[in-house]
Amino acid sequence: MTLSRRGLFVGGATVGGAVLLGAPETAAAAPQLWAQPGSLGAPPVSGLHLQFGADASRQAVVSWHTTTAVSRPRVLLGTPEGGFGHVVSADTSTYRDAKSGTEVRVHHALLDNLRPGTDYIYAAVHDGAAPELGTLRTAPRGRAPFRFTSFGDQGTPTLGKLSNGTYVNDNLGSPYAGDVTAAVEGAAPLFHLVNGDLCYANLSTDRIRTWSDWFDNNTRSARFRPWMPAAGNHENELGNGPVGYGAYQTYFTVPDSGADAELRGLWYAFTAGSVRVISLNNDDVAYQDGGNSYVHGYSGGAQQRWLEAELAASRSDPDIDWIVVCMHQVVISTVDKFNGADLGIRETWVPLFDRYGVDLVVSGHEHHYERSHPIRGQQPNDTRTPIPADTRTDVIDTTRGTVHMVIGGGGTSVPSNKLFYSPAQCRVITAVGPTDPGTGKKPPIYVLEDAPWSAVRDPDHAYGFAAFDVDPGRPGGTTSIDVTYYAVTGPYATSTPVDRFRLTRPRRH
Predict the structure, then answer these.
(1) Tens digits of residue pLDDT in 112-126
(2) Which residues contact 114 (CB under 8 A, 6 or more apart)?
(3) I need a surface site. Which of 41, 208, 382, 421 has the fewest CB within 10 A?
(4) Domain that holds residue 453
(5) Are 298 and 431 in a shared domain?
(6) CATH code at 471?
């Protein structure tokens, strides 16, 4: 795995062929034409998707995958007004699935020096294949309004396992995994955060098919707006990569964090407008044994050190108002007989969130929707119970504390919204026991706590997503994010708002 000279890491390869788009086009940048597909049997352009670079106003990457080698993977790039005027070469990264032996090739084309707040059109193509089209809007540079969305725990709506002559879903997916994608696309965000447990390929009979089904479902949104992921425990696949995330690291392009080669792509950050988004991989610090292998502590503290440096830099940057963390496992949860909150995260990352004033944390792992009061500080008990800084639920000053949101209803077939404690309590994983020879897992050890931090819970809806509308405000005043959680209640992306609130904080300048 190598580091791109332009600061973007793509699992296993440097992204090349970047093109300058800041200067006016010249006669040399004449429109490019693609040839009609030939008869050589080239595989199609599959799973087309976008990611932002570290500066979302200037960088993006177009990616697609095949399972056989292709010739001249490339992207034709242009604007709606001017048509295609540039060709950007794609580099290819690979991984071989340890279960099936299938090698997957993922083609990544870096679009660099884009114009902020601008609409682009593109076509991904390789020799012998029909081009696949998409659009991209870059983030604004500086303070400007925009929307982003978030959910976790999706799976696929497809059937991938033959059981007693009948096909079934074997990746915890349901039809709602398709409905929620359609609802997100209907909300038309600038970008979408996926809070871990994307497709549950580690549970499936055919991991390659499951990843392919996930991209086939989501390309109808991810080819038009970047889907920015966090790795969850179910992205941990036995035998794939040094710590099990080889597939995830190859499929997704994320900004480089300076991590060692085998860990690159597992944590990262990017800026959109005045919002700094930090994506973490919680399996490094969480106690729970939830993937195909137990990898607690895998980074040797590297992720923790990076996170503190990143938070310090973000909070001292006068151009950043908001710090948003995207991760999978949770600090808060008030359901019984499910995963629970994790003391490992409370011990390691929550003190950093407090110290540097993180505004918002979006997570998944629990398959329902709930949110906390703004929390700041911890009780001196065995579970380090978060302390609520305020109990108002409609308008929240995030300088007083961090709001945690559990948004785990992206489509999984195992919702947890009917398991809420009444009154609210929380099961916290404080340690794990020795490996159970029957399951191969380390069983969690739970301690029950009261939940004074619990603010809003939705027991009535299993599926949904959250939308965040950023208002930069005026110099010398406040900036705000209006948050709406939408329950997705049926086909055709039928959505109902069930929770609305506003986050506020002073604008930096």
Answers:
(1) 999 999 999 999 999
(2) 21, 22, 57, 58, 59, 60, 120, 138
(3) 41
(4) 146-506
(5) yes
(6) 3.60.21.10
